[in-house]
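Q: Two folds, back to back.
A: First:
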Amino acid sequence: MPTTPARQRDLSDRPAVRARAASRPAVRQPLTDAEVTSLVERARSGDQDAFGALYEEYRRKVFNLARFSLPHVTAEDAVGETFVRAWAALPRYRDVGVPFVAWLYGIARHVVADTVRAGMRVEPRAEPRLDEAVSRDGELDHLTLGAALDRLPDEQRVVIEMKYLADLTNEEVGAALGKTPGAVNTQQWRALAALRTILEDG
């Protein structure tokens, strides 16, 4: 017998059906630029819920950046410190055409640098797999790779950090650095080639 709309409503009201529906993981779509702008403006006015939404959107990118230089637990602490500093600095934030995540990235870099200077470095780092981009076998020691990154010119190192660690697109990196996406792509490949040479030369 066909299930009527009323029958469907009856079934959906059953606890077991409700429990199964609740257990399905929600797929969260990335925020649009307009949504980010709106949340930032609300957060600047003191809306903690809006800032919480920004935290959920970007905490993984900030963690990826921190994790490349810090042990896991310390990287988690760095994420927290980054957002604490971001919340304090939000009243001074101005949208000048640079993605909000790039502004966060700048704060995160300072947090990581402060932590490293405080002596919290280092354990072999598990992510992200930048080694696969510069090694034929993809099995580099991550500390070796980190040391090689430190030998890059600042401009190349920043592009690699923003692309691979903060997980920004060419467009976002370009907006942050005042470059076209094509120039970012060129700089990225030059940096990867330079890294490969440094690693092969030892």
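A: Second:
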Amino acid sequence: MPADRRECLRFLAASLAAMPAVMAQPCLGEEAAGDGAATRKEWLDEVFASGKAVKGGLYLYRFSDEMYALTQPIAWAPNPNSPKDLQRVEVPRGFITDFASVPRIFWTVLPRDGTYLYPAIVHDYMYWTQSTSRDQADETLREGMQDFSVDPVSLNAVYLGVRAGGWLAWSNNAKLKAGGARRTLTKLPDDPLVKLSDWEKDPTHFQ
């Protein structure tokens, strides 16, 4: 890593540790999510019997307003030697994500679609479902980034950003869900020019 980028990331990590920051959430998976003949249960059994921390190639649909939806499910499982009490996570097809929500000013050193993209989407899903604690979601992100060999400086910058400012996204998601918002599609557009803001106007597009 170039020295100037490393120093910039160290400065960012130190800044995030010292003050609240916007959430820095949610690379590609290793294999496709099975063939079309496999049932969802069979696929999940294969995922978590394989011993791999991650499973499922990262296949996405891009809306024209820079939002994305999974076109195949992905999954993550804690490593056997993990010291944390973490759970396996399965993110369904159709889940909507904005990747890693890194402030634009930091995109040159922490791009939204960096090496941490896969665990960032898993983390995004956990922040939406809130079926675990926020601490567990953040630890899942950290272990996931380790699985993808994210360099330590970037890993710490992203993790510290989540710890500092993730409470805001967690709270906002809880309010959105209470208001009836949904983030998993049952149907994806065929047209790449469709905006999510238009697609979500039809409630039949969501489960």
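Q: And?
A: Residues 152-178 form the longest helix (27 residues).
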